[in-house]
Amino acid sequence: MLKSLNAILMAGREVLPLVEGGKGISATNHLSSGAWALAGGVGTVSAVNADSYAADGSIVPQVYRGKTRRDRHDELVRYAIDGGIEQVRRAWEMASGKGALNINILWEMGGAQRVLHGVLEKTRGLVSGVTCGAGMPYKLSEIAASYGVHYYPIVSSGRAFRALWKRAYSKASEWLGAVVYEDPWRAGGHNGLSNAEDPLKPEDPYPRVKALRDVMREEGISDDVPIVMAGGVWCLREWEHWIGNKELGAIAFQFGTRPLVTRESPIPEQWKQALLKLENESDVLLHRFSPTGFYSSAVRNPFLRNLEARSERQIPFTAEAVGEHTHVLDVGNLPRGNKLYVTTGDLLRAREWVALGFTEALKTPDSTVVFVGREEKAEIRKDQADCMGCLSQCSFSAWADNEKSSTGRLADPRSFCIQKTLQDIAHGGELDRNLMFAGHNAFRFSKDPFYSNGFIPTVKQLIDRIMTGD
Question: Same domain for 228 and 310?
Answer without folding.
Answer: no
